[in-house]
Protein backbone atom coordinates (compact mmCIF):
# COMPACT_ATOMS: atom_id res chain seq x y z
CA UNK A 1 0.00 0.00 0.00
CA UNK A 2 2.80 2.38 0.92
CA UNK A 3 4.40 1.80 -2.46
CA UNK A 4 1.32 3.31 -4.09
CA UNK A 5 1.61 6.59 -2.21
CA UNK A 6 2.88 9.60 -4.08
CA UNK A 7 6.59 10.01 -3.51
CA UNK A 8 6.16 13.69 -2.62
CA UNK A 9 4.54 12.68 0.68
CA UNK A 10 7.82 11.11 1.76
CA UNK A 11 9.74 14.30 1.18
CA UNK A 12 10.63 16.40 4.22
CA UNK A 13 8.77 19.74 4.25
CA UNK A 14 12.02 21.69 3.89
CA UNK A 15 13.01 19.71 0.79
CA UNK A 16 9.56 20.21 -0.75
CA UNK A 17 9.81 23.95 -0.12
CA UNK A 18 13.25 24.20 -1.74
CA UNK A 19 12.21 22.06 -4.71
CA UNK A 20 9.11 24.20 -5.25
CA UNK A 21 11.18 27.40 -5.05
CA UNK A 22 13.74 26.07 -7.51
CA UNK A 23 11.04 25.08 -9.96
CA UNK A 24 9.14 28.37 -9.72
CA UNK A 25 12.12 30.71 -9.79
CA UNK A 26 13.97 28.55 -12.32
CA UNK A 27 11.22 28.69 -14.91
CA UNK A 28 10.39 32.32 -14.18
CA UNK A 29 14.01 33.39 -14.51
CA UNK A 30 14.51 31.20 -17.58
CA UNK A 31 11.65 32.70 -19.57
CA UNK A 32 12.33 36.28 -18.46
CA UNK A 33 16.00 36.03 -19.43
CA UNK A 34 15.21 34.19 -22.66
CA UNK A 35 12.78 36.87 -23.84
CA UNK A 36 15.03 39.76 -22.82
CA UNK A 37 18.07 37.99 -24.26
CA UNK A 38 16.43 37.59 -27.66
CA UNK A 39 15.20 41.20 -27.68
CA UNK A 40 18.60 42.61 -26.66
CA UNK A 41 20.37 40.45 -29.26
CA UNK A 42 18.11 41.75 -32.01
CA UNK A 43 18.50 45.36 -30.85
CA UNK A 44 22.30 45.20 -30.59
CA UNK A 45 22.65 43.32 -33.86
CA UNK A 46 20.59 45.72 -35.94
CA UNK A 47 22.10 48.81 -34.30
CA UNK A 48 25.63 47.55 -35.02
CA UNK A 49 24.69 46.65 -38.60
CA UNK A 50 23.16 50.09 -39.16
CA UNK A 51 26.19 51.89 -37.74
CA UNK A 52 28.53 49.80 -39.88
CA UNK A 53 26.46 50.21 -43.04
CA UNK A 54 26.01 53.99 -42.65
CA UNK A 55 29.55 55.41 -42.33
CA UNK A 56 28.71 58.41 -44.52
CA UNK A 57 25.93 60.95 -44.17
CA UNK A 58 25.08 62.87 -47.35
CA UNK A 59 23.27 66.10 -48.27
CA UNK A 60 24.70 68.01 -45.32
CA UNK A 61 25.05 71.79 -45.42
CA UNK A 62 28.35 73.53 -44.71
CA UNK A 63 30.39 70.38 -45.31
CA UNK A 64 32.80 69.62 -48.18
CA UNK A 65 30.85 67.77 -50.85
CA UNK A 66 27.79 67.72 -48.60
CA UNK A 67 29.08 64.62 -46.80
CA UNK A 68 30.30 63.76 -43.33
CA UNK A 69 32.19 60.55 -42.66
CA UNK A 70 31.50 58.76 -39.39
CA UNK A 71 34.88 58.45 -37.69
CA UNK A 72 35.89 55.34 -35.79
CA UNK A 73 35.27 55.62 -32.05
CA UNK A 74 37.45 53.35 -29.86
CA UNK A 75 35.29 54.06 -26.79
CA UNK A 76 32.12 53.00 -28.53
CA UNK A 77 33.80 49.90 -29.96
CA UNK A 78 35.07 48.90 -26.51
CA UNK A 79 31.60 49.43 -25.11
CA UNK A 80 30.10 47.12 -27.71
CA UNK A 81 32.69 44.41 -26.95
CA UNK A 82 32.01 44.59 -23.20
CA UNK A 83 28.25 44.61 -23.74
CA UNK A 84 28.60 41.55 -25.97
CA UNK A 85 30.47 39.80 -23.16
CA UNK A 86 27.56 40.65 -20.88
CA UNK A 87 25.18 39.21 -23.46
CA UNK A 88 27.17 35.97 -23.59
CA UNK A 89 26.97 35.77 -19.80
CA UNK A 90 23.21 36.28 -20.11
CA UNK A 91 22.88 33.19 -22.30
CA UNK A 92 24.93 31.23 -19.79
CA UNK A 93 22.52 32.51 -17.13
CA UNK A 94 19.58 31.23 -19.19
CA UNK A 95 21.12 27.76 -19.16
CA UNK A 96 21.76 28.06 -15.43
CA UNK A 97 18.12 28.99 -14.76
CA UNK A 98 17.07 25.87 -16.66
CA UNK A 99 19.46 23.90 -14.49
CA UNK A 100 17.52 25.06 -11.43
CA UNK A 101 14.43 23.30 -12.79
CA UNK A 102 16.39 20.06 -13.31
CA UNK A 103 17.74 20.38 -9.77
CA UNK A 104 14.17 20.70 -8.51
CA UNK A 105 13.29 17.35 -10.10
CA UNK A 106 16.29 15.66 -8.52
CA UNK A 107 15.29 16.97 -5.09
CA UNK A 108 11.89 15.32 -5.47
CA UNK A 109 13.39 11.87 -6.07
CA UNK A 110 11.83 9.16 -3.88
CA UNK A 111 15.30 7.79 -3.11
CA UNK A 112 16.89 10.13 -0.60
CA UNK A 113 20.38 9.05 -1.66
CA UNK A 114 19.72 10.36 -5.18
CA UNK A 115 18.86 13.85 -3.98
CA UNK A 116 21.54 16.56 -4.21
CA UNK A 117 23.06 17.57 -0.91
CA UNK A 118 22.28 20.94 0.61
CA UNK A 119 25.85 22.13 0.12
CA UNK A 120 25.81 21.16 -3.55
CA UNK A 121 22.52 22.98 -4.09
CA UNK A 122 23.85 26.14 -2.44
CA UNK A 123 27.00 25.92 -4.57
CA UNK A 124 24.94 25.76 -7.79
CA UNK A 125 22.90 28.80 -6.72
CA UNK A 126 26.06 30.72 -5.81
CA UNK A 127 27.54 29.94 -9.21
CA UNK A 128 24.38 31.41 -10.72
CA UNK A 129 24.99 34.55 -8.66
CA UNK A 130 28.55 34.77 -9.96
CA UNK A 131 27.36 34.43 -13.56
CA UNK A 132 24.82 37.22 -13.10
CA UNK A 133 27.25 39.53 -11.29
CA UNK A 134 29.94 38.97 -13.93
CA UNK A 135 27.51 39.65 -16.76
CA UNK A 136 26.19 42.73 -15.00
CA UNK A 137 29.74 44.04 -14.49
CA UNK A 138 30.65 43.61 -18.16
CA UNK A 139 27.39 45.22 -19.28
CA UNK A 140 27.75 48.15 -16.88
CA UNK A 141 31.29 48.83 -18.06
CA UNK A 142 30.13 48.57 -21.68
CA UNK A 143 27.21 50.92 -21.04
CA UNK A 144 29.49 53.47 -19.37
CA UNK A 145 31.86 53.33 -22.35
CA UNK A 146 29.01 53.77 -24.85
CA UNK A 147 27.38 56.61 -22.92
CA UNK A 148 30.75 58.30 -22.40
CA UNK A 149 31.35 58.13 -26.14
CA UNK A 150 27.95 59.68 -26.84
CA UNK A 151 28.58 62.44 -24.32
CA UNK A 152 31.83 63.27 -26.11
CA UNK A 153 30.00 63.37 -29.43
CA UNK A 154 27.32 65.65 -28.04
CA UNK A 155 29.94 68.17 -26.87
CA UNK A 156 31.64 67.93 -30.23
CA UNK A 157 28.37 68.57 -32.04
CA UNK A 158 27.57 71.50 -29.78
CA UNK A 159 30.89 73.20 -30.45
CA UNK A 160 30.66 72.48 -34.15
CA UNK A 161 27.16 73.93 -34.42
CA UNK A 162 28.35 77.18 -32.88
CA UNK A 163 31.12 77.59 -35.44
CA UNK A 164 29.06 76.28 -38.32
CA UNK A 165 29.08 72.90 -39.99
CA UNK A 166 28.53 69.44 -38.57
CA UNK A 167 31.04 67.13 -36.86
CA UNK A 168 32.21 64.07 -38.73
CA UNK A 169 31.38 61.86 -35.76
CA UNK A 170 27.70 62.70 -35.30
CA UNK A 171 25.13 60.97 -33.08
CA UNK A 172 22.58 58.76 -34.81
CA UNK A 173 19.46 57.03 -33.63
CA UNK A 174 21.30 53.70 -33.75
CA UNK A 175 23.66 55.00 -31.05
CA UNK A 176 20.75 55.48 -28.66
CA UNK A 177 19.33 52.13 -29.76
CA UNK A 178 22.59 50.52 -28.64
CA UNK A 179 22.19 52.00 -25.18
CA UNK A 180 18.67 50.59 -25.09
CA UNK A 181 19.99 47.13 -25.92
CA UNK A 182 22.61 47.33 -23.16
CA UNK A 183 19.95 48.36 -20.62
CA UNK A 184 17.83 45.35 -21.59
CA UNK A 185 20.81 43.08 -20.91
CA UNK A 186 21.23 44.75 -17.51
CA UNK A 187 17.56 44.17 -16.69
CA UNK A 188 17.89 40.47 -17.56
CA UNK A 189 20.91 40.10 -15.28
CA UNK A 190 19.06 41.91 -12.49
CA UNK A 191 16.16 39.45 -12.74
CA UNK A 192 18.57 36.48 -12.64
CA UNK A 193 20.44 37.99 -9.70
CA UNK A 194 17.21 38.60 -7.77
CA UNK A 195 16.06 35.02 -8.42
CA UNK A 196 19.31 33.53 -7.16
CA UNK A 197 19.29 35.70 -4.04
CA UNK A 198 15.71 34.65 -3.29
CA UNK A 199 16.70 31.01 -3.67
CA UNK A 200 19.63 31.49 -1.30
CA UNK A 201 17.28 33.06 1.20
CA UNK A 202 15.00 30.03 0.90
CA UNK A 203 17.94 27.69 1.44
CA UNK A 204 19.11 29.58 4.53
CA UNK A 205 15.70 29.09 6.11
CA UNK A 206 16.38 25.35 6.44
Explain this structure to me?
The structure is a single chain. The chain has one domain (12-204). The two termini are 31 Å apart. Helix 2 packs antiparallel against helix 3 (118-163) and helix 3 (118-163) packs antiparallel against helix 4. The chain has helices at residues 13-53, 74-107, 118-163, 173-204, and strands at residues 56-57, 68-69. Mean pLDDT is 80; it is low at 1-8 and 160-165. The protein is elongated. The chain contains 4 helices and 2 strands, in the order αββααα. The chain has a two-stranded antiparallel sheet with strand order 1-2. It is mostly helical.
Give the secondary structure arrangement, pairings included.
Blueprint: H1 13-53, E1 56-57, E2 68-69, H2 74-107, H3 118-163, H4 173-204
Helix pairs in contact: 1-2, 1-4, 2-3, 2-4, 3-4
Question: What is the compact description of this entry?
Answer:
This protein has 206 residues and is mainly alpha-helical. The chain has one domain. Helices cover 74% and strands 2% of the residues.
